[in-house]
Specification:
The structure is a single chain. This protein is mainly beta and 144 residues long. It has a domain of 100 residues. The protein is 7% helix and 40% strand. The chain has 2 helices and 11 strands, in the order βββββββαββββα. The strands form 3 sheets. It has a 4-stranded antiparallel sheet with strand order 4-5-6-7, with no helix packed on it. β10 and β11 form a beta hairpin.
Amino acid sequence: MWFYNSNASHSDATSPNEGLTKCEVFDFRVNAWRYLNCTPSYRIYHAQKPASVNGTLYWFTELYNAEIKVIVFDIITEKFRLLPKIVPAIASLDPSHIYTLDNALCMSKREGDKLIQNIWRLKKSSEDTWEKIYTIDFLLILTN
């Protein structure tokens, strides 16, 4: 799978972060690449790799209206959707901290100027409930 932003000059000038994304999937049955037609209208954050959990890929979108979203792609059904909720503390940050931990989707953010990193996990039983699973105080770690 190859998921990427379209040329910015083709997007709507009134909504610069909304625009077409392109998705190509390699079809091993015919040994060729093909385009998926139903792609999200949000541009993905270009400086990240997707997180993968149980046959599902996750990307942050670019910041738009002071918020980011999470795009979800199901590899089996080849369908995209948006997560219904995102951690408010994460929703307005530089979208580069999305990853898999303990077979679950996780996000992290540093608290302001402090050396504290908070890590949230998407609950496996729900796609709209996040739980804070770790708080790491790097200052405490460095002084011990």
